[in-house]
Amino acid sequence: MRSLPFVLAIATAACTPAAQPTNTPVSETTAGAAQKPCPETTEATTAQKDEVDQDILALAATAQKCNFEHGSFDYDCAGYKEWRDAGDDLFEGPSGNSTILSMLEDKDIRARTLATQRGFTGARSYFSDPKHGARLLAVIDKEREERLFYYYGRFAAYINGEKTLGKELRALANHPATNFRQSFAENALPTHPNEFSLGLVKVFLDDPDDSVRRAAIRSLSASGRTRPTEGICALLKTQIARTDKLAIDALIAGRRASARAWPTSSWPRSRSAPQTRPPPEPRARPTTPTRCLRSAGVARRPKS
To answer: Which residue range is the domain that position 238 belongs to?
Structure first.
């Protein structure tokens, strides 16, 4: 296969404006060339990005020869081990994500299983292209293997519904597979903390399944990964006021803290006064969602 610079050189030559008369001023010649962009350049670049990587496909083909039962490969099979241990640099090229997406479109469940386990690199950027997002949604629509839906829920969250495919993503909030909805609810808001994702969370909060509602509540904090906004804080405030069995999950989401215990092994000891107990742990530092709730009067500042 020819390299991209060579392809672009041919495309540029094919659409270079015809030679100007010798008496044409240089400024007019330059302006004429600038006003005539080469349409083939964009098409060639897009085609290059969507090409599949033959090395990845060869690696996957070897792994697919391993014994496959009940949705799982033989863990000790050499081909499957090689797929698992393949370096990320193999998949980080421009064709890595396109290869994984093409494997998800494969009719062979073994290829789709390998692709879901590997996942995408720089997925938010990749799925900002509506064509890639539409292909993924088509894969989800055709899928019938229950084991793969949890992965698909995470993949669907990579699409920013505020900019593209919003109608389709709203429909997926009512997907019949519970594990898909749970994964989608868990990842949509942390991946894209915007009003569209917040709207999805509100849909998931009314889901008939407890696991989906719990995932939606926890996504409001996601252990501090969710960047807080006024809308997120307001919704989290209403969830903390719950009185049902999910109230504890709302409190965890609102008061999630990250703290490191003091390493006891490094605490200084004295022969004259040996340390008989570990030092007190430092006070937990609230996450950003907790701090924004304090401003709303929901979470109290701990006493010093």
So the answer is: 220-257+286-304
